[in-house]
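Teaching assistant's notes for section 4

Start the section by putting this record on the projector. Ask students to predict, before seeing the second block, whether Guanidinium exporter will look compact or extended. Collect guesses on the board.
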Amino acid sequence: MSWVMSINPWVTLVVAGLLEVLWASGLKNVSLQRPLTSLGVLVALAASMVLLWVATQKLPIGTAYAIWTGIGAVGAALVGIVVYGEPATAVRAVCILLIVAGIVGLKLFSGAHA
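Reveal the predicted structure now:
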């Protein structure tokens, strides 16, 4: 596990966020009839949590958690629109852009330069 700790914490956090998108989006397909899909969702969930933990060892917890959830929220919303045909309204797009602006702001002003 020591090699994971040596990776840039921001890269680790982004990968954790992308895994969050994967497991959150995969929840729509979890069922007893799809055991491999369900297992994949659980593996992505566990990996996302472990990588979030790794990132928080070098980044402020509030910043890391907010960015992780922001990546997950934006990614899941985009997957919902692109894959699941959820509505892509202008208001929804503005809200997604506000989340992205918050993520960028937290990164820029976190005080962590690891």
